[in-house]
Batch of 2 targets.
Target 1
Amino acid sequence: MKADIARDAIKRAAQSLFAARGVDAVSVREILTAAGQRNGASLHYYFGSKDDLVAQLVIDGARLIDDRRNARLDAMETDGGPRTLREVMEVLIIPSTGLGQDGGEGDYLRFISTFSLQNRAAFEAIVGDGWNLGYQRCLEHIRRLAPLPPRVLERRLVFLSLGLRAIMTAREAGLAADQDHAFWSPQGTLDDLVQTLVGMVSGAETGSGQC
């Protein structure tokens, strides 16, 4: 339908602009121009407000990633798994790839990375506990499988969360610039990332553990 095409065009244009410049730096007029919309009220007609549009974009991507993670975990748990930390890390990583149209990487991760840094309270209010069930399930499996004291493990899980978002955002940006990027395009890069994350939660504790 024509309305669906217009809505999708506005969403794609807005997310691309937000990813490049941040939400606060982009005006409604710029979004509509980029989306090819002549009616200056179309964003408000379809979404209510710019803030409502932002929330919809955050939820759309978060739901997609969460659905993918939960589907993988459901299949593994039905078979008695996941049995290894590597399997869990793959569930964390792979669903965050191919988020664009036609399987491309898109710009969702860059959008939420910028938005969460600049508008942390708004981001957390949108996401809440509603769209990270798959992530929380992964953390519980890591806690079950990782051979580290709880105090150490919880600290490393924070490092893992921060590092994973930064790395996947950098990957998305690299592939957006060049889909055959020498570093980011080979499958071996993701394999190395999986193994790196495994190492973060399986390595032995060293030192006193105090700063």
Target 2
Amino acid sequence: MKHISRFTFSLALVLLSFSGLAQEKKTTKNDTIKQDSIVPKKERYGLRVGVDLFKLTRSFYEKEYRALELVGDYRLTRHYYLAAEIGNENKTVDDDRINFTTKGTYLKVGFDYNSFENWGNMENIISLGLRYGASSFSQTRNSYLLYNPYPYFGSSTEIIDGTPYKGLSAQWLEVVAGVKVKVFNNFFVGFSFRGNRLLSQKKPSNFDNLYIPGFNRTYNGNFGVGFNYTVSYFIPLYKATVKPKETPKGKKK
């Protein structure tokens, strides 16, 4: 009887061992099939083109302002984008002592870095970037008031001028912080804030560049600020597979 019991117990141990091995193999096989069935994520690359609605709509409600700015970016890598803006401005400024008109075109080129980690099919952007800007323009001094050191004896005399100053130029650097959100299909809306630092400028001999197209006002010396609100359309060119993040050695998956 003892021999039979020992034999039965030994047979049970052997069967349990084979069962465990079979279960392990089955689990490993299922995990492999499941892992192989995961579809790799792909992201779209292409060109995005649009217009600055802020400048465009401002031209309708501000009588002395006309402007148009086209914007665009091209996705180089998963996070980096080549970016550019090209525009034209015609602005008349009527200050307390001077009235002048600035006309010209400008170009900004640089890059944006997207720090937003999208999930699913999202393609939103929270970016920080840099631009090099250059502008070619002219200014016309329409009128100005002569300085009157004794205002109690009468008002300042207004001089109607109309002197044009052509062949002016300026270069600057621009730090850009912005957001772009996909609203539907391939359409995006976005906005950005800009801080400018003037590098160089060509001034008239007896006048100053009080406003530079693309840079804005220069009343604060070499520093300026800007803002744009854009709507753009994305033109997809190709897709690239996103590489999965590698698990550091020594860490369990």
